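Risk register update: the risk of archive-format incompatibility is retired. Evidence:
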Amino acid sequence: MADSDPAHDYFSFANSDQFVIRHLELDLKVDFDRQTLAGLAVLHLERLDSGAMTIVLDSRGLQISSIEVSVGETEAKSATFGMGETDPVKGEAIRIQLPAEFQGETDFLVKIEYQTGPDASALMWLPPELTAGGKNPFLFTQSQSIHARSWVPLQDSPGVRFTYEARIHTPLQLLALMSADNDPQAMRSGEYRFSMPQPVPS
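Archived output:
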């Protein structure tokens, strides 16, 4: 049956009519040996429906270790969560139940510790022999059209736009680049920071 709501994105599990991401913080380590990204995603969420207590996010093959929620500078609390059944196209829904004391809160943080799965569709890993220099491996991400969910747990729909910041950890000899503001003179330290002040889709 077709969805009767024309604003609903058929290819997203996210309940973005009840909660919406306003900002994303990423802190990820690139592991070329295991071909994974691992670390944290912190979602700055706004509740649009005052009665909603379950956040639904998009994912595909992500391995979630823990989820915590907090308001402002308050201590984070563990949140109960579950993964939906796998859809061959859309992946899996992440369903996060907010603690009862969050009932009246409008803005809060959701901190997700996770790593990508071995078959993340957005991650393209090239061995050294397939690169121009032939000495170092190469990774690039391709998030269109619904592949961002395979490397970040989020609302993977073009109707949701948010700002983001990221800290990416790489092997010392490699440089990280993202489509965001950064310091082109940054030391090759294995840690790179980025900021995107304009709201963009996933």
